[in-house]
Amino acid sequence: MLEQVDLKLSIKKSEYKKLIEPLGYRLDELERLCRFNGIPIVVVFEGWEASGKGSCINRLMRAIDPRNFKVHYFHIMSREELLRPYLWRFAIRVPSRGFMSIFDRSWYQRVLEDRIEEKIPDYIWRDTYYEIETFERQLIDDGYVLIKFWLHISREEQKRRFKKMEKDPMEAWKITPDDWQQHLKYSEYCFAIEEMLQKTSTSKAPWTIIEAEDKYFAWLKIFETLRYAMENAL
After folding, report:
1. What is the pLDDT along the chain (234 residues), one digit of tens a residue?
2. Closest CA to 39 of 48, 52, 30, 28
3. Which of 38, 72, 84, 160, CA to CA, is 20 to 30 A from 231?
4. Hey, is 192 helix, strand or coil?
5. Distance between the two ends of the chain, CA-based, in angstroms?
6. What 8-state DSSP symbol labels residue 42?
7. pTM: predicted TM-score of the whole model, two decimal places
C-alpha cells in the first residue's frame, strides 16, 4: 500500500497561494457552521517523525477560529493515565457538541511504536484494535466527524530531514536517539502501518494518506479533505 504512494507529488508555491487562501476562508466558515449546528469534529494527525505533523497543525490553526478548537499532544503517559484504561486519556479530550479537537498523535501509538519497540506484549496491541474499532464506532454513532491523516515520507527523506534538523541549533533538540531508532526500523514500521491502515480504515472513518514530502501539497490536501468532511457532515 505505502509503496504505491506517489511521494513526488508537489505544487508550485505560486499555485498553492492562489488555492489556499479561499480554501482557508471556506474552512473557517464551515467550522462556524458546524459550531452552530452542534457537530463535533475529531481530527487525528499521525505520521513518521519529521513528516511535518506540527507544521500541518500550525497551518490549520491559522485558518480557523481559535475559540472553537483545542490541540492535544500525546506522548508519554502520566502516572494518573497509567492507572486508567488505555483509551481514557483520549476519551476525556473528545470535544463537546460544535467544537473540534485536533490530536497530535493518538490512540494508534499502541499498535505502532509500542508494538515495534516491544513496550507491551503482543496480545495487548492485538486487543487494542478491537478497542479502537469500538471507540471510533461509538464516536461516529454519536454524531462525531472523525478525520484521520497519515503523513507519509520516504526513508531517504526522513534521514535528510533528521540531518538538517540536527544542524539547526533551534531544532536539534527535537531529534532524539528514539527517532533514529525508528528510522533504522523503517521497514518494520511500514509493515505495522499498513496493517493499521487496513484494519482501521472504514467508510465513515477512513484514513487519508498525505504525501508529505512537499509541504504545500500536504497542506492543500489536508485542507481539501477537511472541507469535504465538514461539508458532508452539514
Report:
1. 898 999 999 999 999 999 999 999 999 999 999 999 999 999 999 999 999 999 999 999 999 999 999 999 988 888 899 999 999 999 999 999 999 999 999 999 999 999 999 999 999 999 999 999 999 999 999 999 999 999 999 999 999 999 999 999 989 998 999 999 999 999 999 999 999 999 999 999 999 999 999 999 999 999 999 999 999 999
2. 30
3. 72
4. helix
5. 31
6. E
7. 0.96
Would you give the distance in Å from CA 111 to the centre of its chain?
14
Give exposure, 76-90, as e/b (b: 16+ Cβ within 10 Å).
eeeeeeeeeebeebb
* Overall residue count recorded for the chain in this entry: 234
| Spatial distance between the Cα atoms of 22 and 142, rounded to a whole number of angstroms | 31
Nearest to 212 by CA among 169, 152, 127, 139: 152
Helix axes 53-61, 215-233, angle to 10 degrees: 50
Instruction: Show the DSSP H helices in the chain as ranges.
Output: 13-37, 53-61, 79-82, 88-91, 113-116, 122-141, 155-167, 177-184, 186-200, 215-233
Distance set, CA 35 to CA 12, 28, 65, 68, 69 (Å)? 34, 11, 10, 7, 10
> Is 38:97 a contact under the CB 8 Å cutoff?
yes
CB-based contact 148:208 (threshold 8 Å): yes
Residue 11, all three cell numbers = 505544487
Residue 118 makes CB contacts below 8 A (sequence gap 6+) with none
Looking up cell 493515565 gives 81
